[in-house]
Amino acid sequence: MLRSSQPLTGPNRKRCREDEQLLGTALGEEQRGFVIDTRSAQAAKQARMTGGGTEPKSSYPQWRRLHRPLERGRPLQESFAKLVEACNDPSASMDRWLGRLESCRWLSHVKAALSTACLAAQCMDREEASVLVHGAEGTDTTLLVTALAQVILDPSCRTLLGFQGLLEREWIEAGHPFHLRCARSAYSHARLKQEAPLFLLFLDCVWQLGRQFPFSLEFNERLLLTLFDNAYASAYGTFLCNNEKERCLCKVKESTLSLWGWLNQPAERKKYLNPLYSPNALVIWPSVEPQSIQLWQGLFFRWIRSSQYLDEAWAEIQRLVDSS
Amino acid sequence: LCHFFAQVENVRLLDRLSSRKAALGTLYLTATHVIFVENGSETRKEIWVLHSQISSIEKQATTATGCPLLIRCKNFQVIQLVIPQERDCHDIYISLIRLARPVKYEELYCFSFNPKLDKEEREQGWKLVDLNEEYNRMGIPNNYWQISDVNRDYGVCDSYPTEVYVPKSATAHIIVGSSKFRSRRRFPALSYYCKDNHASICRSSQPLSGFSARCLEDEQMLQAIRKANPGSNFIYVVDTRPKLNAMANRAAGKGYENEDNYSNIKFQFIGIENIHVMRNSLQKMLEVCELKSPSMSDFLWGLENSGWLKHIKAIMDAGIFIAKAVAEEGVSVLVHCSDGWDRTAQVCSVASLLLDPYYRTMKGFMVLIEKDWVSFGHKFNHRYGNLDGDPKEISPVIDQFIECVWQLMEQFPCAFEFNERFLIHIQHHIYSCQFGNFLCNSQKERRELKIQERTYSLWAHLWKNRADYLNPLYRSDHSQTQGTLHPRMAPCNFLYKFWSGMYNRFEKGLHPRQSVTDYLMAVKEETQQLEEELEVLRERLANLQESQLNDNKVKSKQQERSKQLGLSTSNNSLANTPQEYSNDLKSFPSRSPSQGDEEDSALILTQDNLKSSDPDLSANSDQESGVEDLSCRSPSGGGCLPSEDSGKDSDEAVFLAV
């Protein structure tokens, strides 16, 4: 699986031999590959006007392009803000709750993200084809898809350590602009232009996978919540800045502590383990039917409703597993 | 061999989610079932559907591939068949229509079902749930409440049981007088008594008050209820109908209690909609479930438009109100709706469940249903269509109650002794008519038909298989299981989830592939066994001199067991196949993945690996496929438990029917 940003085809349909060659190396003779473009066909076409575009079939004959538009940027942030508002609204009546939930569109975004990641995984696992994922910049929806696809495909990404490695690789080192994207979160009225909860969307999708495959993730919901917290505000330098270059300039590694260092301490680490975990060597294919996708109550109602009874249930599960 | 009414070959069974997955097989019609058996020697998928379960049959337009027939079941299974010849399809259609609409009770499966128990065992089965014992457990009879035989020949109210519990100060005269002032003669009677504070829940039907009618005895009856609670000087009267409906009833000479006429009552409307609204609500929700590849938007809007979860919440809120009145205020409550056998039953049983942890045990839950639904004359026949009847009487009343219980289980995972499967199987059997508990409309009718002598009790059957229905997280000494449950009333809209385990029960692709419940039960069982063994060992060690030898023997046995446990946990990770994420991939030649065959093989319901308690053979064990091996083991470590409504038992039914 490869990722990139959009090709700069432009309005004149420029070609780039090196790019074609590079992609060519990912495929064997007679093999076909898929390009998963996270923009709609129309948006991708329009991008040409501003110098971007898509891989033309004539220049990349072995690659088949699939468009799976995923929301990002301002609309995604709006979706998030609306959902949080709806959850916090004490006057919300049951009559209108589902409609309100729907109009936030958050769950639709979760469904779309999971579907696209599954598609990428399916191309690789079932069709045994290589996949190139890109949107426009290659820093948002692209990473969402590649990271999620790996959780689906690769059991090592489902271990606690493996998942951290995945985050390092596919989000941090790959240059997701955390500083811009995770600026103020849902309550802020600032509505910054560059803010968007892609990383939260990723965590939500991972939570969905954990719910559908309760034995397959080594880590629990608490880890996901901790990651969410630290992406926005952290005592550690892991999620600082927007890319490796900035982190270098700011001397992040020299002047801050790593979140992973703290998480992986034996005493801390066990809080994030899933008591039901049993290494599952196979690919986990989630259902993306609407009934299978649920609102992440642990996150969205975290401060609204006590999780006491569910916590007790998990404590009981831990107790049962420990005594066995 | 056995007799079938009809047999059609080369029938295709389609899968709703994946149009690619179709099974080819033979369709059989027997006196009691529709059966589909897949061709092929190894993977013989079988689906058995009782005629009682059939809700509707739809013959669709013939296409090039054949004649489609859609069977919708009351347990929400939807079977899509394609029959090659139109003539055959028509015949099956006509036959099914007749078979699914029995005219006499004797046509129902319960009269031919034979679980091979002797007369004594059958009787014992019926005695498992004893309501007299239950009222004794509540602490009755006592200074305030007593049993009354005023209805011993059903002379006062034919939909009530022969034994009713009333306040000590309610004389026969008062009861009879009150019954004449109540719709269907359903006078106020005791549903639940809280011995801690003497508050009670009573139930009745609406008073025939019209605009201004009064009845001295009825007013005395309510006073008697009030006086039976020394802790409070008033009672709540809760009308579970919307105010508008109740007012409209006044024009027909019925209505509700006027606070001016009844001393010391506080009147309250709760506003649960009637059976017609509920029937339509379910219908709309099922239409959403049948959508092909719905978007999140389609689903959420569809669910909202059905209003289903809103109704569930309304019932729950009513139960919470009553539970609060009893537990926190110590005030007695009289509940009614129109006839006092639908909404009243729902609300009283939800309230009881919240109040008393006994009803959250398996036995207690059976008792609860027996008390508030069966004995108090809920019209099972009319509501669930045992026999062909008025479609306007059909309504998912008990289904809603069962869902309320599930919603509570989701909120309080440690509080119930039983699990989701228990609820699903009860719902299944309410419609299956395989057992006699839920036949007819009243105790009177059931006794006339001699149900207990001619059929078997579901409760005995469930009790026998109770290991499958346990909740591993339940501990009777856990804080969640003590005392009253306190679900938040508002705002908790978001807490109500769509119950895909019930309404998409047969869609294997939708559910988590790995059952946490079964895994934890297996773990618990293993731990218990090991602990018991350890105890035995300790004793032996203390007693015997050749302890060394025995130690070695047992160690290898223990290793074997833990190896088995290890084995089965890794079996959890059974492959599953991806659903259709994209139409674009169809054009590529895809390998037929071996993993896909494994998933299908998990669906195979041969007698050997059937979940013992699964009433419906098409109910999948896919959810539990990971722990199949372990769950098949009985506590004694033997082979698989004999399957319940297995293929062979049902063959017997076929023989018998002929």
From TrEMBL, chain A:
InterPro entries attached to this UniProt entry: Myotubularin, Myotubularin-like_Pase_dom, Prot-tyrosine_phosphatase-like
Cited CDD domains: PTP-MTMR9
SUPFAM superfamilies: (Phosphotyrosine protein) phosphatases II
Domain Myotubularin phosphatase: 1-300
PROSITE patterns noted in UniProt: PPASE_MYOTUBULARIN
One CC-aspect GO term: cytoplasm
Lineage, broadest ranks: Eukaryota, Metazoa, Chordata, Craniata, Vertebrata
One Gene Ontology biological process: negative regulation of autophagy
MF-aspect GO terms: protein phosphatase binding
Stated family: Belongs to the protein-tyrosine phosphatase family. Non-receptor class myotubularin subfamily.
Descriptive protein name: MTMR9 protein
From TrEMBL, chain B:
Gene3D superfamilies for the chain: Pleckstrin-homology domain (PH domain)/Phosphotyrosine-binding domain (PTB) (2.30.29.30)
Signal peptide start-end: none
Gene Ontology BP term (one): phosphatidylinositol dephosphorylation
Residue positions binding substrate: N274, I275, C337, S338, D339, G340, W341, D342, R343
Active site: C337
Subcellular location: Cytoplasm; Endomembrane system
Coiled coil: 520-547
Domain Tyrosine specific protein phosphatases span(s) in chain numbering: 306-350
A GO term from the CC aspect: cytoplasm
Comp. bias (Polar residues): 565-595
A GO term for molecular function: phosphatidylinositol-3-phosphate phosphatase activity
Positions with biased composition (Basic and acidic residues): 552-563
Occurrences of domain Myotubularin phosphatase (ranges): 125-503
Protein name per its UniProtKB record: MTMR7 protein
Encoding gene (name): Mtmr7
